Write a sequence for this structure.
């Protein structure tokens, strides 16, 4: 029963799309109702299943899924021409990421009620995007994983180019093509993994049973790691993200920054580092060197930007840099911090882009120099933005503090001067983060209000609900990190044991 | 297994064009009878092909010069599917032909020519000796010359046909030259004898033959550096002919290579692998590069199909069973995606000029056409979960069986380039604002039906495993 529910997570969005085909695109209310019901139902399923995974704890799992202890494990032969299987399962790490996705998709649908253009196609694309993200986190077969991973490109371009703002075609193309570049690197290594491992299987569990030849690992690991890192905007492949995010409609920015950019980091951990641990040990110090840009320079660039979405995009780049710092630390604490940061940053950036989208819907500008006094007219949205900002600079009580401090402790434990230097720089860069967040909040929310903003209204119930739920999630992880950390530790152990 | 049954579809395919063309003698100019006969005939042949048991063996007829094996049966199915789609398409073309263009009653000859080309393709996959093989290739090509020049008053069409005939004749000369050297090397025309001669030892004579054969087929398959005729011919020919040209001709040419590489030349496959890899890599790069700056729909599709030819070549590096599975599967999905694209272009061509700007605002005015166009473009670009991705995955998998990772990495990177220009086209249809000067598009119920059918096929053939599994089972002898 639970296994069936688990598999339904990615099927329901597709079924919703099919169910909406007969509804004419003029019936927008009906379309929104169907999609909201569908995403709420998925959210419910995911929450129940996440609790089940937590409750099962370290209980023994299906032996076929070793070295992972996967719940709801399903393995069905799929394409016999190259022995691809449909393998899905859940451990703490991907279950929490699925929960994050479900929350962000739910919020994304709720904030898109007033999107201009053909809503039928827009919601269908959101559901397809949701399918692809759910599929990525669920699958443990390389072919299945790649199919879901690459599927996003199909939806992303259309959503950004048709429903975005500003330089939408440019932003959409830049994002889609850069991500496609990353996935082409991954695809090339997948063939290598299949044939070099000699297992005749695409299953993550099967391939991990053999030690891959070292000369193969030495070229395949950087290719695969960087391929994934493209979607997590690791320097030098970060350039797509500011343009892409700023052109995208609110819901797409939320999904792209909140969950899609985590797919890259997740892939680095679950696929690249897990399958090729020997090469990872050699190559990861170089990744640490690249991080100096992400973590240290990212916030400085954000200071100089005037566009709210650009600021948030560069803030995301620096936060995602911290995930890689945790991964590259190669200590259990670092890996735990990295995975906590994936989840925490998802909620954080979701909240950021949601409030920005709501404010933009009213002011029709994202330029902070043109704004002012928003707090007077939109106190709720303003407070939501400030909370997101504080969570972003790592205020204790919010999830960001827990995740980042865990990463710093983990990274400092590693006996390497470079990592320690980068860690110290990263800790110092929190000050820079504070600068741009306080500066933005100050300029936007306080001070004199332009006359044209006099008629603006605060968020409606739907928008307030989104903000409250996302803030609640941030606080929940921030105040009770224990259960989350336990779930993550259990699922990180099999990966760390390979080192 | 009773041997004569095997050959019934082939005999039907041979008789069939004569019946279709002959039927015109007995009915008046506006009659729909030839078209109905063609429909029933092709569907019947397709059904009969599905009843041929695949057991990994092969049947030989006519003094061992005609064989029916697994690859042949699947190729027949690809060719017949292509012919059926081409036939539906030509009906659409003749229904909408404006004044001064060919009228409905000529459809019998049109379909007859397509059927001849199909039979030519069947001959290529059935041949066991170089003469039959060569004849098949010519039977497949000559009707295409006639079809290209169908609108005799159309300047572009006549230019295209002239170019095609001249280039095609040169290619034919190359092939004949290659075959004569092959005969000189092996002392026999029969493939089995040539294969054993090649296995016994090589000589420069063989390499000259191989080089000439590859040059000859390079013309037909639009490989670098012999691809230059394709954009002009694709643009000049009537739209259904372009579609048939891009699928049937290409399928025939690639079947020719498969028969050659895994038949007589199988013992030296490893030695000619660098040549194949080079042709594949350069062709797909050049095709992708050429497509970047196109703004006319059919020139664009010409370059796109040049690139696709390069991708197909990657599969020829693999082991026999895997390469054949990959190529057959890819040809199926390529046929469906390509016909879908051309069908949409054809509808646009009835009302507007065939350039990118004619697509403006399509998503707002005709959402179903815009969705179909996006599906076909993303499928050709190889984006999952559409069929095109799985097709390319098969091709790359086949190439990877022999460890050509560098070529695969190159091909996969080229996919990003390809995605760029396919996105350009999707952008015209989805992002650009409608242009009031464009003629409105009207879809008939039949057109809508074909588009929905093909779109569903492109979506479903990919992730539902029945097609690829059936093909794979056929080759691994389950």
């Amino acid at each position: 029963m639970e296994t069936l529910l688990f598999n339904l997570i990615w099927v329901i969005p597709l079924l919703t799309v099919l169910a909406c085909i007969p509804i004419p695109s003029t019936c927008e209310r009906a379309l929104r109702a169907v999609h909201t019901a569908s995403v709420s139902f998925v959210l419910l399923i995911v929450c129940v299943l996440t609790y089940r995974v937590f409750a099962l704890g370290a209980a023994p799992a299906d032996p076929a899924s070793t070295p992972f202890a996967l719940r709801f494990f399903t393995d069905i032969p799929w394409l016999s021409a190259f022995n691809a299987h449909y393998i899905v399962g859940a451990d703490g790490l991907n279950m929490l990421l699925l929960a994050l996705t479900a929350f962000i998709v739910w919020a994304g649908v709720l904030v898109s009620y007033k999107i201009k253009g053909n809503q039928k196609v827009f919601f269908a694309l959101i559901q397809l995007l949701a399918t692809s993200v759910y599929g990525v986190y669920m699958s443990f077969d390389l072919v299945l994983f790649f199919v879901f991973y690459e599927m996003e490109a199909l939806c992303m371009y259309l959503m950004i180019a048709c429903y975005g703002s500003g330089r939408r075609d440019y932003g959409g193309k830049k994002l889609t093509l850069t991500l496609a570049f990353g996935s082409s690197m991954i695809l090339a290594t997948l063939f290598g993994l299949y044939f070099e491992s000699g297992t005749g299987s695409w299953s993550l569990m099967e391939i991990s049973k053999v030690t891959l030849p070292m000369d193969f690992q030495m070229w395949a690991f950087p290719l695969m790691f960087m391929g994934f890192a493209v979607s997590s905007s690791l320097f030098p492949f970060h350039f797509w993200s500011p343009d892409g995010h700023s052109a995208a409609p609110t819901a797409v920015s939320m999904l792209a920054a909140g969950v899609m950019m985590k797919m890259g980091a997740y892939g680095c951990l679950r696929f690249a580092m897990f399958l090729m641990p020997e090469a990872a040990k050699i190559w990861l110090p170089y990744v640490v060197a690249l991080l100096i840009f992400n973590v240290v320079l990212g916030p400085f660039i954000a200071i100089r930007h005037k566009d709210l979405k650009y600021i948030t995009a560069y803030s995301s780049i620096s936060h995602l840099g911290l995930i890689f710092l945790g991964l590259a630390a190669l200590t259990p604490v670092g890996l735990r911090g990295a995975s906590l940061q994936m989840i925490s940053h998802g909620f954080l950036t979701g909240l950021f882009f949601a409030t920005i989208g709501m404010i933009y819907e009213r002011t029709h500008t994202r330029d902070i120099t043109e704004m002012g006094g928003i707090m007077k007219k939109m106190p709720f949205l303003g407070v939501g933005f400030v909370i997101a900002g504080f969570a972003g600079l790592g205020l204790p009580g919010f999830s960001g503090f827990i995740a980042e401090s865990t990463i710093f402790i983990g990274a400092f434990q590693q006996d390497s001067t470079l990592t320690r230097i980068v860690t110290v720089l990263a800790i110092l860069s929190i000050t820079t983060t504070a600068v741009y967040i306080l500066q933005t909040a100050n300029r936007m929310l306080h001070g004199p209000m332009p006359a044209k903003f006099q008629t603006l209204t605060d968020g409606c119930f739907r928008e307030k609900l989104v903000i409250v739920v996302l803030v609640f999630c941030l606080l929940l992880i921030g105040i009770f990190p224990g259960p989350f950390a336990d779930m993550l530790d259990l699922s990180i152990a099999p990966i760390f044991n390979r080192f | 297994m009773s041997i004569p049954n095997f050959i019934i579809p082939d005999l039907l395919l041979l008789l069939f064009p004569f019946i279709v063309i002959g039927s015109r003698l007995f009915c008046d100019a506006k009659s729909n009878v030839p078209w109905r006969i063609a429909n029933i005939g092709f569907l019947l042949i397709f059904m009969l092909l599905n009843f041929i048991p695949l057991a990994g063996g092969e049947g030989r007829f006519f003094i061992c010069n005609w064989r029916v094996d697994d690859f042949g049966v699947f190729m027949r199915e690809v060719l017949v599917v292509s012919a059926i789609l081409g036939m539906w398409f030509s009906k659409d073309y003749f229904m909408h032909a404006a004044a001064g263009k060919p009228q409905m009653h000529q459809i019998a000859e049109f379909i007859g020519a397509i059927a001849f080309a199909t039979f030519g393709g069947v001959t290529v996959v059935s041949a066991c000796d170089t003469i039959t093989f060569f004849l098949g290739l010519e039977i497949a090509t000559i009707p295409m010359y006639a079809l290209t020049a169908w609108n005799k008053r159309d300047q572009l069409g006549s230019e295209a046909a002239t170019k095609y005939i001249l280039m095609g004749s040169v290619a034919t000369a190359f092939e004949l030259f290659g075959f004569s050297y092959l005969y000189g090397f092996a002392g026999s025309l029969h493939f089995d004898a040539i294969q054993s001669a090649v296995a016994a030892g090589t000589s420069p004579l063989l390499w000259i033959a191989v080089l000439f054969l590859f040059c000859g087929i390079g013309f037909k398959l639009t490989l670098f550096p012999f691809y230059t005729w394709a954009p002009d011919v694709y643009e000049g020919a009537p739209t259904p002919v372009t579609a048939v040209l891009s699928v049937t001709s290409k399928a025939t040419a690639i079947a020719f290579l498969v028969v050659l590489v895994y038949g007589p030349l199988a013992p030296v496959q490893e030695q000619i692998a660098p040549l194949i890899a080079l042709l594949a890599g350069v062709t797909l790069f050049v095709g992708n590069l050429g497509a970047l700056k196109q703004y006319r729909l059919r020139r664009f599709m010409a370059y796109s199909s040049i690139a696709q030819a390069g991708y197909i070549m990657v599969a020829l590096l693999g082991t026999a069973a895997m390469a054949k599975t990959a190529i057959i599967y890819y040809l199926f999905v390529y046929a469906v995606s390509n016909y879908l694209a051309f069908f949409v272009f054809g509808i646009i061509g009835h009302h507007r000029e065939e350039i990118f700007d004619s697509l403006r605002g399509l998503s707002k005015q005709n959402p179903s056409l815009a969705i179909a166009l996006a599906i076909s473009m993303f499928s050709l670009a190889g984006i999952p979960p559409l069929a095109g991705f799985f097709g390319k995955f098969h091709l790359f998998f086949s190439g990877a069986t022999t460890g050509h990772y560098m070529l695969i990495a190159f091909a996969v990177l080229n996919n990003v380039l390809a995605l760029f220009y396919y996105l350009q086209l999707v952008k015209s249809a989805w992002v650009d604002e409608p242009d009031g000067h464009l003629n409105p598009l009207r879809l008939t119920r039949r057109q809508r039906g074909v588009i929905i059918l093909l779109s569903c096929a492109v979506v479903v053939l990919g992730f539902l495993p029945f097609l690829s599994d059936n093909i794979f089972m056929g080759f691994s002898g389950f």
User: Anything to note?
Assistant: The CA atoms of residues 299 and 432 of chain A lie 6 Å apart. Chain A touches chain B at residues 25, 78-82, 118, 121, 143, 146-148, 150-151, 153-154, 157-158, 161-162, 168-169, 173, 176-177, 180-181, 184-185, 187-188, 191-192, 194-195 (CB under 8 Å). Residues 2-496 of chain A form one domain.
